[in-house]
């Protein structure tokens, strides 16, 4: 979330070709081999690279988008899916303005782990962090194990933004990130408003404790 | 391995060390000249986190630097090394060399991975842009991006390059192994001569009935000739005994032991309690590098077996992504033991006799196992070994290049964000395979 702290420091914002109106840190999480790195590769190069090796530690890319006439710079953090790396990944949840939680529609296993990841987010990330649930690999229709509506239900239950996509075909890759940018902007505005209300809060509390 | 407890192991040569302690990862295990320094580096029971590199006795960094200058293959003559140290590595020379390495590397990449290279380059530039802001002196970053863009432009200056850069492991157009030869055909005869004399030194050392491992280690610091490397690695890792007469029987026993493990455990890979481990290995192996290995079913089978057996025999860490990378150098080096130089390019491993392949597999397993014995806390819960090493790196950089350190800090770049993988995969993903192999000569 955009904290006061985040605003005070320029957050190392790059003098990118265009100076962004909004800069967000987005962390990608999800089980190993669901396609986090492939998704980022597609977003960056608009092609599918079948030769990507397993991510170790953290990796990152910057994606610049123009949405609703505003320039967005998304700092996309790619994480390793294997459980051993989770303690390392968790250290970066707090920095994230948004989290993309990905599962593989051809793997029930990875879908079941979504609740595990949600608990990690709850535990380690800022309250009100924007979350996008992404079901990847829609191109593998024949192997699908997780119906679209299961994803939708889960997203609704936890109030997450939801998309299905395919890094291999490009389906919904850019679209989901554009929508997510809008959500990030909304969350930022909400937080700003909240921050303005904050001074009133403690007074009220004081009056009720006796 | 309990049975190997007393033996010398990779990066872990003081018996009192806790499992997983790893000062030696940095390749500075064997600074050739200063036993004093070495002693302080591995003081048993020293406090772990903050400043394990206690250099009190070495008063200045310059002294430290001259003690540890790596000379790649320049030879092990003390005079020569001292001469290099005396040059005092001025920035210009360092940058020129670095530039050269990057150039060679990018050339190689261009030839093989056009697409990927292109992407990398963009990424580099992104990074360069990101880091160059507000940095008064961004020489390193700059040279990185230059190295990528200018790589094809100045082939002509190639030959005039100084000896130092020639001493780097040779770049080559062959995909996998030929570049690991110590010298290929393009090298001048003077170097070949030196190489011949080095080879002789190794041969002499190995000729006796008992190999002096300390001498071997010292000699290996400046690089092991390709032909010698398989046996040198096996000796230095503690897999092979120093006594010649015991070697053959040890090999036979160990190989048998490994395949007994395979027989005992491998069928359990789909059992409920092991399937997660196997599943992870099985999805990682088809996406490992280099491609030459990945595309050979025989090789992937071998890697899967090695990793699975290791994982279930080491439940404290189990299989962790990245460990697969640590099998590769051993496997490739041990394959080289059995093939002629001419055949190396595009070599099809399945052409080797089954028995030979089995030997390579068992040897790779045991040597990797020895290596991991010394760094197991890299891969246990929360990966304390890596956290510690990244902290050490941060501490080191803050002392020797405060400007870089401050710059990273200013831009809220955490060392963990970029150095985690360096430590986790022992640089396997950061430099070409032949360079990793050369580096590992000094780890053992």
UniProtKB/TrEMBL annotation, chain A:
CDD domains: Rab
Keyword flag GTP-binding: yes
MF GO annotations: GTP binding; GTPase activity
A Pfam family that the UniProt record links to this protein: Ras
Xref: Gene3D superfamilies: P-loop containing nucleotide triphosphate hydrolases
InterPro entries on file: P-loop_NTPase (IPR027417), Rab (IPR050227), Small_GTP-bd (IPR005225), Small_GTPase (IPR001806)
UniProt KW Nucleotide-binding keyword: yes
Keywords: GTP-binding, Lipoprotein, Nucleotide-binding
Matches recorded under NCBIfam families: small_GTP
Name of the protein in its database record: RAB44 protein
Organism from which the protein derives: Campylorhamphus procurvoides
From TrEMBL, chain B:
Rab-GAP TBC domain span: 223-444
Cited InterPro entries: Rab-GAP-TBC_dom, Rab-GAP_TBC_sf
SUPFAM superfamilies membership: Ypt/Rab-GAP domain of gyp1p
Record keyword Cell inner membrane present: no
Low complexity biased stretches: 150-161
Leader sequence residues: none
Keyword terms, alphabetized: GTPase activation
Pfam families reported for this sequence: RabGAP-TBC
Stretches with biased composition (Polar residues): 162-175
GO molecular function per UniProt: GTPase activator activity
SMART domains, per database record: TBC (SM00164)
Region (Disordered): 144-181
Protein name stated in the entry: TB22A protein
Organism: Campylorhamphus procurvoides
Lineage: Eukaryota, Metazoa, Chordata, Craniata, Vertebrata
């Amino acid at each position: 979330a955009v904290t006061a702290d985040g605003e005070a420091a320029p957050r190392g914002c790059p003098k990118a070709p265009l100076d962004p109106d909004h800069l967000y840190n987005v962390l990608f999480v999800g089980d190993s081999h669901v396609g986090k790195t492939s998704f980022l590769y597609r977003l960056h190069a608009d092609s599918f690279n079948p030769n990507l090796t397993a991510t170790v530690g953290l990796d990152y890319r910057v994606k610049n988008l123009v949405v609703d006439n505003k320039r967005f710079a998304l700092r996309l953090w790619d994480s390793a899916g294997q459980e051993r790396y989770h303690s390392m990944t968790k250290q970066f949840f707090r920095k994230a303005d948004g989290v993309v939680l990905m599962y593989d529609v051809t793997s029930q296993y990875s879908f079941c782990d979504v609740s595990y990841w949600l608990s990690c987010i709850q535990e380690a990330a800022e309250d009100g962090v924007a979350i996008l649930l992404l079901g990847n690999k829609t191109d593998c229709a024949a192997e699908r194990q997780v119906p679209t509506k299961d994803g939708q239900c889960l997203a609704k239950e936890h109030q997450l933004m939801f998309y299905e996509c395919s890094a291999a075909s490009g389906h919904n890759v850019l679209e989901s990130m554009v929508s997510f940018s809008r959500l990030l902007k909304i969350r930022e505005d909400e937080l700003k408003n909240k921050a303005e209300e904050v001074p009133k809060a403690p007074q009220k509390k004081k009056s009720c404790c006796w | 391995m309990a049975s190997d407890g007393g033996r010398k192991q990779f990066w872990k040569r003081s018996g009192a060390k806790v499992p997983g302690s790893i000062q030696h990862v940095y390749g500075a295990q064997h600074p050739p000249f200063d036993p004093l320094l070495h002693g302080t580096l591995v003081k048993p029971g020293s406090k772990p986190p903050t400043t394990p590199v206690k250099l009190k006795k070495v008063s200045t960094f310059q002294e430290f630097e001259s003690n540890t200058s790596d000379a790649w293959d320049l030879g092990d003559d003390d005079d020569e090394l001292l001469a290099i140290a005396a040059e005092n590595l001025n920035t210009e020379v360092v940058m020129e060399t670095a530039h050269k390495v990057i150039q060679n590397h990018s050339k190689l990449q261009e030839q093989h991975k056009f697409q990927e290279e292109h992407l990398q380059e963009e990424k580099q530039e992104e990074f360069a842009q990101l880091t160059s802001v507000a940095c008064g002196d961004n020489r390193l970053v700059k040279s990185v991006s230059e190295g990528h863009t200018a790589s094809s432009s100045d082939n002509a200056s190639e030959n005039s390059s100084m000896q130092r850069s020639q001493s780097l492991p040779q770049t080559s157009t062959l995909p996998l192994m030929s570049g690991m030869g110590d010298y290929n055909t393009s090298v001048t005869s003077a170097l070949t001569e030196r190489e011949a004399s080095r080879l002789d030194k190794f041969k002499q050392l190995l000729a006796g009935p008992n190999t002096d491992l300390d001498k071997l280690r010292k000699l290996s610091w400046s690089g092991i000739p390709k032909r010698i490397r398989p046996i040198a690695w096996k000796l230095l890792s503690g897999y092979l005994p120093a006594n010649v007469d015991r070697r053959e029987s040890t090999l036979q026993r160990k190989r048998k032991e490994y395949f007994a493990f395979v027989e005992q455990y491998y069928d359990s890979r789909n059992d409920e309690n092991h399937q997660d481990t196997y599943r992870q290995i099985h999805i990682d192996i088809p996406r490992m590098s280099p491609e030459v290995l990945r595309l050979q079913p025989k090789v992937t089978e071998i890697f899967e077996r090695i990793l699975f057996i290791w994982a279930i025999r080491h439940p404290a860490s189990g299989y962790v992504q990245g460990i697969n990378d640590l099998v590769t150098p051993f496997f490739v080096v041990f394959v080289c033991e059995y093939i002629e130089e001419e055949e190396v390019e595009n070599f099809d491993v399945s052409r080797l006799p089954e028995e030979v392949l089995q030997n390579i597999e068992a040897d790779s397993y045991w040597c990797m196992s020895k290596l991991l014995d010394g760094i197991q806390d890299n891969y246990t819960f929360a990966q304390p070994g890596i956290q510690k090493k990244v902290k050490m790196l941060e501490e080191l950089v803050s002392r020797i290049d405060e400007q870089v350190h401050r710059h990273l800090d200013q831009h809220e770049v955490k060392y963990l964000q970029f150095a985690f993988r360096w430590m986790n995969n022992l640089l396997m993903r950061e430099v070409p395979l032949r360079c990793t192999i050369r580096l590992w000569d000094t780890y053992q």
